[in-house]
Amino acid sequence: MTSPAPAGDAFNALADPIRRNIVALLHDGERSVQELADALPVSRPAVSRHLRLLKDAGLVTDRSEGTRRVCRLDEAGVERMRAYLDEMWGSVSVRYRIAVENTSDEGLA
């Protein structure tokens, strides 16, 4: 039996290319909301909305630093996604290997 998808619909959150870009930028380390906005083709308010969805999905955390919000990847959330994908890929690869092992060369000609 497989585990349910990570809470907060992380896969849906990553369906948007801007949010994927945010995750890629945060992969390199913490960044302020303004630094993220400066690196992306969207406004600061739009980045804040995208960050809220990523936070709800458990992929990003933030903290106050004076008047700035500093964001980083939530390692636990990213690990949950990785574990889910590893589990799903593992069962697919096992089924594929069994299918290949049980397929005769005669039917491939």
Note the topology.
Elements: H1 10-13, H2 17-27, E1 31-32, H3 33-39, H4 44-56, E2 60-65, E3 68-73, H5 75-101
Describe the structure.
Helices cover 57% and strands 13% of the residues. α3 (33-39) packs across α4 (44-56). It has a 3-stranded antiparallel β-sheet. The protein is an alpha+beta fold and 109 residues long. The radius of gyration is 19 Å and the shape is elongated. The chain has a domain at 10-80: Winged helix-like DNA-binding domain superfamily/Winged helix DNA-binding domain (Arc Repressor Mutant, subunit A). The longest helix has 27 residues, at 75-101. The protein has 5 helices and 3 strands. It has helices spanning 10-13, 17-27, 33-39, 44-56, 75-101, and strands at 31-32, 60-65, 68-73.
Using the alpha-carbon principal axes, give the shape. Answer: elongated
Give the count of helical stretches.
Answer: 5
CATH class of the domain at 10-80: Mainly Alpha
Q: Beta-sheet strand percentage?
A: 5-15%
How big is the Rg? 19 Å
**In terms of structural class, how would the helical and strand content be classed?**
alpha+beta
Short description:
The protein is α+β, with helices and mostly antiparallel strands.
